[in-house]
Amino acid sequence: MASPEPHQCTQARTGRSLRRACAVAIVLSGTGCADLEQAARQLPQPAAGGGGGIREQREIEMNRRWQDQPLTQLVAELGKPMLTLNIPGGGTPPGFVVVYGEHGSSGCIDAFAVNSGGEPRIRLYYCR
Predict the structure, then answer these.
(1) Helix, strand, or coil here: 18?
(2) Which site among 54, 66, 67, 95 is 20 to 30 Å from 74 CA-CA?
(3) What is the value of pTM for the model shown?
(4) What values do phi and psi take at 77, rounded to 5?
């Protein structure tokens, strides 16, 4: 059996990342800000042995790095997000979510809850 071409593997990974990002988007767009963390935690997680420790460590490190930082700084460093989602009703505090692609070594889909009052600032990072 022939091995797939490298571009086919890349397309498969991109498709998986996009499907996971869409799952995050669907769950997050249907919840208020107060329910954001609970809804995000209900998303399917990788099977046991899928790097849970790495994922948890990434979430801790990314929250240390990005909490309360301006959104402009995040975009300057990581680029334009794949998705930007409004929170129905605006949330409390008012905000939105930005979703980036899959982080290679951890398997996280990087998602950030952003407060929109005044200068938009990162509220929380989620590894999904």
Answers:
(1) helix
(2) 54
(3) 0.61
(4) -85, -45
Q: CA–CA separation, 111 vs 119, rounded Å?
A: 19
Place of tokens 């991109």: 14
What DSSP assignment string belongs to 61-97? Answer: HHHHHHTT-BHHHHHHHH-S-SEEEEPGGGTTTTEEE
The pLDDT assigned to 17 comes to: 60
- In 3-state terms, what secondary structure has residue 14? helix
Which among 8, 25, 3 is positioned nearest to 111, based on CA atoms? Answer: 25
- Token pair 């208020």 is found at 32
Q: What's the rounded Cα separation, in Å, for the pair 33 and 93?
A: 7
pLDDT single digits (tens) 12-27? 555 666 666 655 555 5
Amino acid at position 64, single letter: R
d(CA 62, CA 20): 19
* Model pLDDT for residues 38-84, shown as the tens digit of each residue: 555 555 554 444 545 999 999 999 999 999 999 999 999 999 999 99
**110 close to 125: Cβ distance less than 8 angstroms:** yes
